[in-house]
Structures are given as structure tokens and as C-alpha cells.
């Protein structure tokens, strides 16, 4: 059978209908004076039964458990039994035509209206007992009963709604509402046939009515005022009929030939259906036990619409929050509310003890004073378990605060067989329902990097996510087919698509997300090299499944609560969950976690700042990579310091309620993304909740921090400072970027203007405070010039101190980088406590750990475990055949010249060791110690002491004099100041053991060619000045250097009295040769 079945059964004119209490049959009547009885489960081939007892057109029908009643133009209200098509009796009659018959919820009384200015309330058990409700100025068109049967709402032809209290023995008018409904007195006009009834909600706390302004309004029972309005840009024209679903979740309305179904909690249209074109729907009715809506129109057709509410929404029959709760009406709390008080309500007059209790009073006691979720609660509320009561009635306690169900960011419900699976800054996924399958269309905003596509979806995927490098889809389990995840990367090869099956029966996907690096090229090789990122799947088993971009399972992480939603970036996934249950004061109790893809560590974990009584609407990632959220309060928040563990905080950056464009407009905003300082969204008009088709354009709204003081310039500075701080937090080892520098310069310009204003006003503290916010040194100079211009000498000096402090301290960029390094540094592992003895008590001793604390790494204070040999131009590699050097030769530290006493003791110690046992340093290989050094004067001896520049340097002959003196075996001249030490020759022999030796002139000349020189007599006379000068010159020429001595120490030794003219050779053989010659 088709979803909509229309059958022409009555002639043109006013028609009416009603369902039986069990929903198995439907009664229709029209101008042809025939009542047809339809079996609801039958198709169009079914021939209905009919009743022709009426002598005139049928104007109204009503049903009870044991029968049904019809009202006719002839003024009679006839009663029929349940299983009989013949009339039982005439309940009552009027002189004028009957316009409405209404049976109360207890099936005891019936209200009958007519063109006469009165209403009859007749007892069905005793039709002679009639209560007259009089006082009208015109005829009464309709009457509806309150769910408690204590109130009766009547609508008159002159546009009044009169509320009667019929609980007392003598009914009285409780309230009269004027000017709300249209006044129609001409019974022949088409508007007179419209259903103007006031439809009571199942909670009994308010009713719905169509106004003369073509709107549907809600009237509260507490003060009889209008509390809300149902409006939609796609709904226009006069409202011709209203009907409420059995559980009060949905309200059906008819406008001309179209039927719209509204959510009573969100007051939004969730689906629509077109009736017979050109006709006016005169009455609507919901089936009391199935998902079925039926209506009759002015052409005499009877239409049945099966399953008007899709499976994505709660059932219209089963009990839910909206059944007993006033979700859309602010209820005034009763004083002295006692949750644990006994129910002492008395039954109404005429009721027996075993009769039904007053549902209105009981429900009011439950609902009054409680906070109920007013956004998306009814549309997603799970059906409540029905508990049997007396006579089959249901009385139950519902949840105080409805928990927000899981949702996918950027998705919408199915409306008119179309929906959005995803809508973000990358693109949009559109789905069209074709009954047996879906058509999925994927479009991208930047078509230079990604190419759109479409495909046929036979599994009817209900979840979608557009990532940077691929799209993810998920379908629910159906029959034997399990839930499945489909990943389609943005590549030209369909072979790269893969699926992930949730093999366990009954598991559903609650949310999906895909994170990857931004796509900057369409080259498939580059894309495959960088990978497709990571995919996260949330399931009904309270876990998160992490998959690689190629479908490889990586980790299944348990989630500590009910999953709500999530979004992913290139590095992490941002998950929202409910750690516990909702609270009694209206809080959703939501928490968030940021989980790294690389090592699955939790970077941040905290409570989501959703105010009490509100729900989360959207989460996303800004262009700077920071998490963002939007709730029903209309505020936008950004998570700052999200990369630094345990330092994150939510910053409010926008309040859509304070936008200038919203003043005087009824509009809302559907978030898409955040770029720079703009809020990307779709504009929703009126009471629209989701974007419709065709796809609207994305609007850019500038973000402004909602400061309470009107200071735009300061707000601009703080907003830019926030973005700069987020940019700094995203850096690794970089000091700054060009974008950050340009932003800081712009901020400094604004700060200079504020400093000028503070100086002009004489507010020195404010000027100093703003000066400290400057970033560049040049702007500090500009601030000092401004202070000098206004002759603020003290302020200028303080600014100079700020500048000096800035220059002396560590650079702010380096300081910020060091701080990031400290924050991002991994924490050391916790110390393990010593194991307690087996026989110890359960009490823990915090001082039981006697082990040393963990080692702190200090490279500068570490001990040297191996010798470090520095390579210089004086060092050489020792051949492998030589004896290892003594430790004294490896000592690279220079030693100061020893004193005379210490040298004498050392010489005595050296004589006790054989000469052959002393290992000498290796000879020089290639370096020439006498070669000219770079950047050094060739005429200057580095070991000589400084002389007058005017004095000429002559070649010394003292060397040959010393040789002759040695051959003549005369006592050599002692060095001045040598004291009683050994002679110089012996001292030189001893000194040769202490350092490297060099070849002298004796080692270079052959022995055979030795030329004897005449011996000179030693001069016993005291040395003259010339002799001393000659000796000094010879010392300047003959003294050689030691590897470990520096130039400065050599110059000091030349001037010291302990200096000795020591000549060094390369080997031990040369040492013995020099000794024999001397």
C-alpha cells in the first residue's frame, strides 16, 4: 500500500471524520448525508460500510468506547452502538443545525454546539440530565474537552474562546479570550467550514489554536496568555484544521491543501505532505494506536497518510516527555511543592472511588517547577515504558532533564525526503530518499583540490563526515546485515575505498570522524605518500575505534560515559561525552576529551561549559586548529591552550544574541565553521531549526568578544591578542611567523592610540599598563615621545624603565619558546613506593620509601669518565710500537713553573729512576716548530720578553762559548739567582725528562766534520752590562718551547730568575750524544 491513499467518497462541501478508540475503524461524513465506516487496515479495493439514517448533511462525528455519535444539519445528535450500523437513540436536539459534538475523555458526557448561543452538556448514561452553558452572543462553532474533563473550551462565531469550568455542580466561565480567532458568522462561506477548535495538549497545561493572523499559538492554562508561536517561512495561508498526536509530541496542521507536522517542543516543521490540489482540508485526525494521519477535504475525499513520522523520530503514539511534560511552556511553580507528600486529591463530583483519578492535577504536581529540555528533547526522546494502571490508564514519572542524544555535527533530519549528512568548511553531503535506496551527492567548496561525485546508496547510510582527505559514511544494522563504515578517499581510484564491519549483532555507529593533514595537491602520489589520516568510530558499546586511513585497526578505547558527538583535526580527535546522568537542575553534564592520534594519550580532559537548561548544538575546529563549540544560548567558545596539557580554557568570542543585524528580526544561526575572525553560518528565518533545500549560501558574521563595556578598540586588541596567543601555541621550535609579526604590529598601532588617549586624560597607570603590552622596541620609543609631548616627565621615565627592563631581560620570543618546551616536556615517571611487608597492617606509611630520588639530568655537572684529548697543531698520533705515554703527558692543563725547592726535590727523585725506563713523548712528524706562524711577526720571539723597539737584535755567540767552557771542563757560569742548586748542565739533563725534546745544532751536524775551536779562558771578572745583554740575547735565540706551554707563560718564564736554557732533542740517543759532547 502506498504511503498516502486518497478516496473520493463524499460530495463537495464540508466533511468530517473520527477514529474509533481502538483505531481499527474510521468514520467519515459529508454533505451527501452518508456516514461511511472504513476498516483502516484495508486498501483502496475495500468497500466501506455506510449509514444513511441522517436526513441531512453530517457536520460532526465523535467516538466512545462503546459507540459513536453524529451531528447533523437537521439539529439532531444520534447515537450508534459499536458494532451496529443502526441508530440507538437521539441524544439531544436543537432547532438550528448542530456544528460540533465532543465526548469527554471519561466517555460520560457529551458537549453539543449549534448555531444557537448555548452549549448542551448531556450525560450519556442518562440523556435527561442536561447542563446548559449559556451567555453567548452568537452561535458556537466547536467545543473541546480538557484531558481531565474539568474544563471545556468553546469557540464562537464572533471570534471568542470561552473556557468553562464544568467540575463544579454549577459550571461557570473561567476565562474569555477575544480577538484571537477569526470571526465568521456566514455559514455559507468556505471559512465557516474550517476547524477552529482549541486543541488541548495531553498535559492539560496549554492548548493550541489557529489565530486570525494565520498563526498557531500556544495558550497557557495558568494565566491564559499566549506563550509561544508556531511559524515557518514555508507555511503560509489560513490554518484550516489542527490535530494532536496521541502522545502530544506532534501537532498536525492544514493550510489549504497541504499538511504540516510540527514538533510541539521545538515548534518546527519536521515533515509536510501535499493533499488534493485545489481543495481545503476541513478536519484532521491521528490514529490512536499507530503511525497514521488521516483527513477529509472540501472535495469529499478521505485521505490516509501512513508513517508520516519517519523512523528517525520518536513514535507519535508511545508515551514520551511531551505526553506529561510542558516542554514548551514555562510553568509557574506551586508553593509548598512536596515530592514525597501523599496524593490527597479528591475525585470530582459524581465520580466513584474506583473511577479514574484526575490526571490533570496529578500531572501538574509532577511537572510544575521542573526544568525540561526544550531543544530536540522530544524529537529524540526514547519511548517510556508503559506501566499499567487502573482502567488501562498510564501514570508514570518521567526523567527530570532529558539527556541530549548523540548527533553528528553539520547533519539535519530527513525532511521532505531530503537531508544533509554533513555540512562543514570542506563541503556538503546531500541525501535524497528514493524509498528503496538513497542518492548521495558530495559537493566541495574548493573544486581545485577535490572533485565532487555522487553514488547510489543501497544501505541508506545515516551518518556522514567530510574530512580533509576522505569522506566517511556509516549505516545502521538491518535484519542480518550488520552496521558498516565506508571510507571514500578523495582519489581517482575507486579501489582505495574500504569498509569496516561491526560484526557483532546489534552494534550501531553513534558517530564518525576523520582527521588528516590539509590537502594541498591533487597529485595522487603525494596523497598516498602523506597518507589518508585517521578515522574514529563511536559505537553503542561505549568505545572509540581508531582506524588508519587504509582501514587498519589501531586501538579500541573505552569511553567513560555516553557518547554525544566528536570532530577530528590532523593531530587529535575532540570527543564529547556524558560522564554520568543529567542533573535535576537541567544540566546536561557534558565533558570533553582531546585524544592524540599518534600515541592515544589524552591531551585535555574537562567539563564542557554548557549552561543549565541548554544543549550543545555544534562543535568544530577553527582555521587555527583550535576546538570550538556553539550551544543553544547563541554563544561561540574557543578552546585556548589546547596543545598544552592541563592548561586549556574556553574563551567566549561571540554572542549571536547581541548582533546588530538581529535587532528586530526573527532569525537564528546554524554554524558551519570559524575562519580568522569570522563566524561562518547559515541564516535560519523564523522558527526554522535546520537549513532546508535548495542549499542556502554561507554567510560571514564578524566575531566580537561580548565585553560588557562598549569599547570597540580595546575589544579589537584583546581579540587579536587571543588569536596571536593561539598562533604562538601552535608553534614548535619556531620563534614567530610573518603572520604573527604583522598582527603584533597592528596591535601596537592600536595600543599607541590608547596610550595617547590615556596621556591626554592624565591617566598614567593606564598608560604604563598599555605600554607593557607593546611588542616592538620601536613602539616603546613612540610611547615615550607621546609622554614627552604631553610634558609627562615622570611617565616618560617609567616608560624608559620598561624599555630598559625589556632590553636587559631575556627576549620575549625566546622566553615563550622555552615556556612551550617546558609545558610540552613529558613528565618523569612516578616513583614506585617500597613494597610493604606481607604482615604489615593495611595502613600505608608515606615515609616508607627510602630509595634515593630520581636522577636529575645536569650535563654541565657530569663527571668525566674518559679522558678527552683535544687535537691541536702541536699534537701527534703515537705509533703503535711505542710504549704508552705517562699520565703527565696527557695532561693538557698548563702548569705554573715550580719553585726552587720543589724543583730540587723533583730532581733528586728523578735520579733514583733509570733513564731507560722513562717513556719519552713521540717525535714530531711534520710540523716545524721553528716555522713562521700565521699572523705573527717573524722578527719576534714569542718566548722573549719585550725590549725597546730602537734596540737592534744581534746574533748571540754565547752558545759556542758555553760549548768551549764545557770542553775545557771549567765550572760553568751559574744563572743569577740560582742559589745552591746543581749546575745548569745537570739541571738541563734532568729537565729533558719532563717534556718533549727538539733537535739542536749538535744533532744536526755530523761528528766527523766537527771543527775544533780555540779554547777561551773563562772570564773570572764580574759580568759587564754588555755581557749580560749578550747572555739575554742568547737566551732569546736558544730557548725552545714545550707543547703544553702557552705563549704567555713562556714570556713569564723568560723574565723569571729560575729560567734555564734547556735544549730538547727528539730521542734518547740524541740525549746521550749531547751529554757526551758536553
Automatic annotation (TrEMBL):
Keywords: Nucleus, Repeat, WD repeat. Residues 1058-1069 have a biased composition (Acidic residues). It comes from the Eukaryota. Pfam families: Ctf4_C, Mcl1_mid, WD40_WDHD1_1st. GO terms for molecular function: chromatin binding. WD repeats lie at residues 7-48, 133-174. Residues 872-882, 1025-1038 have a biased composition (Polar residues). Residues 714-808 form the WDHD1/CFT4 helical bundle domain. Residues 406-706 form the WDHD1/CFT4 second beta-propeller domain. This is Minichromosome loss protein Mcl1 middle region domain-containing protein. It comes from Galerina marginata (strain CBS 339.88).
